[in-house]
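Entry 14. Structure prediction run on the chain below.
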Amino acid sequence: MRGESIELACPFCDKGKIQCWYIPSTTKIRRLSGSFGKGMAYSKSSEVWLIKSGCSVCGKSQEDVEKELKKLNII
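Output returned:
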């Protein structure tokens, strides 16, 4: 699985660092052929954010941080 490790600021205290794994969206292209002729089909996957830790400064859990980041449309 490709992706990158990113640190985000805690949405509650802005002092702690939250460890995340980010996988960007990708586009897949398939060739089609059949009785209708030839063509291409495109499909796009959505981006994925995996929260790996909670905040060590304010003590918020991983689940609380993930809910708050989704509510703020950061992830």
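The radius of gyration is 19 Å.
Filed with the rest of this week's runs.
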